[in-house]
Amino acid sequence: MQLTTLDSIKSIIITHNNIRSFLIVSTILLLWVELMKLIANKGLLTAWRRRKIMHCLTGPIFLLTWPLFTKDKEGGLYASFVPLFMTIKFLLIGLGVLPDDDTIKSMSRSGNRLELLQGPLYYGIVFVLSTFLLWRQTTAIICIFTLCFGDGFAEIVGRLYGRKKLFWSKHKSYAGSIGFILAGTISSLVFLSLYNHIVSDYNKINISFILRVLVVNVISAFVESLPINDIDN
């Protein structure tokens, strides 16, 4: 009886801590989004630079908050609620249910709310699934960094150096694909080497591991290079 009572108290404390962490992390990411909206309203950066900053840095900011949650599945569940609710918000804005011109301006290319139902929506879904299904796993880190830095830098490098286009996709370049592979691979490895305490299955980075991360990014870069607009996330 006493053991059951102690277990119940422990469970309540763990749940309370995860709820508190959910509120803290949600606030952090909401402030991050509001900062991007402020930058958009002030016209401090061009639209594509704002989008790329948000695209690249949202993942690392979110991942750095993972230690605030417990290491068990419940922690992963509450952590996944953070991108889930933000993704639902983007869905409602994209559908026109929730008016928010500032968010549309900061996250879309053309100012059309329907764009939020494409790239940003899929971006959020990747965060939710990676967090919930791969909680505290190395694979989750690689997934999120491949999306954030790989996909993010593909456009950046492509804009700067992408004169020679891919023969199977006239809007994508060899330079952009190379940028994807390098940025996704290097960012994943650097983050894991610096913050490996975040994951529970970390092994030392060796040649075999580097090659596996590289292969993931090569495959992802190919998918990103396909001639399908706005859904490559």
Compose a concise summary of this entry:
With 233 residues, the protein is mainly alpha-helical. 72% of the residues lie in helices and 3% in strands. It has a two-stranded antiparallel ribbon.
Key structural traits:
about 230 residues, 2 strands, mainly alpha
SSE map:
Layout: H1 2-42, H2 47-63, H3 73-95, H4 101-107, H5 119-133, H6 138-161, E1 165-166, E2 169-173, H7 174-194, H8 207-225
Antiparallel strand pairs: 1-2
Notes on the structure:
- With 233 residues, the protein is mainly alpha-helical.
- The protein is 72% helix and 3% strand.
- The protein has helices at 2-42, 47-63, 73-95, 101-107, 119-133, 138-161, 174-194, 207-225, and strands at 165-166, 169-173.
- Helix 1 crosses helix 4 (101-107) and helix 2 packs antiparallel against helix 6 (138-161).
- The termini are far apart.
- The model has no long low-confidence stretch (mean pLDDT 90).
Give the mean pLDDT: 90
Q: Provide the low-confidence segments as ranges.
A: none
Largest sheet: 2 strands, antiparallel
Q: What is the general shape?
A: globular
**Which strands sit side by side, in order, in the main sheet?**
1-2
What is the radius of gyration computed over CA atoms, rounded to a whole number of angstroms?
19 Å
Overall number of strands: 2
Please report the distance between the alpha carbons of the first and last residues: 51 Å
Structural class: mainly alpha
Residues in helices, as a percent range: over 70%
Q: How many helical stretches?
A: 8
Strand content: under 5%
Summarize the helix and strand pattern as letters. Answer: HHHHHHEEHH
